[in-house]
Amino acid sequence: MKIKEYIESGILEAYVLGSASETETKQLLHLKDKHPEIGDALLQLEVDLEKIAQHMAITPPPVIWNKIEDHINELVVTPDVELANFKEKGYEDNRAEQSKNNLYIEVEGESSHMRIHKAWRWVLAAVFVLGKIFLAFAIYYYLENRQAKEQIEVLKTELNQMKTQ
């Protein structure tokens, strides 16, 4: 009867769901080797969970695979490699022709930092300093307001005491 109680204790479910502790897992695997009922119960539990998963599965819309494939294709970098013409004369003519057609040179920067004009640096520094000044004023006036409220409360209590006398 101990094996039946062990099977019904919930340890098998915890093991299948992956929430069993290491000691529980070792104990279960040890008992599984000794008692075939535990192995059968584990197999049945796994089959039942698989049936539940298949029954509750939601089939994705048919166009979702195309969207996933498009996103993956966007992530894959495909370099545009032009084969260079290494003939001396042909190579020179090819380069001259390309430079006439391309008005801009494509450059890839390795830095991920944004560069700004020097004048904007001073503007951003001034905004930062003004922000700190406004923060200091806000804290000062907050403390003054709190102190004034405390004084008002003291005066109210004194006034109430005077009225009661």
Description:
There is one protein chain. The chain is mainly α and 165 residues long. The chain has two domains: 105 residues, no CATH class; 47 residues. Helices cover 73% and strands 0% of the residues. It is built from seven helices and no strands. α3 packs across α4. The N and C termini lie far apart (84 Å). The mean pLDDT is 82.
Structural descriptors:
0% strand; 7 helices; 165 residues; mainly alpha
Total domains = 2
Average pLDDT level: 82
Number of strands: 0
The biggest sheet, with number of strands, parallel, antiparallel or mixed sense and barrel status, is: none
SSE inventory with pairings:
Layout: H1 2-8, H2 11-17, H3 22-34, H4 36-56, H5 64-75, H6 88-101, H7 118-164
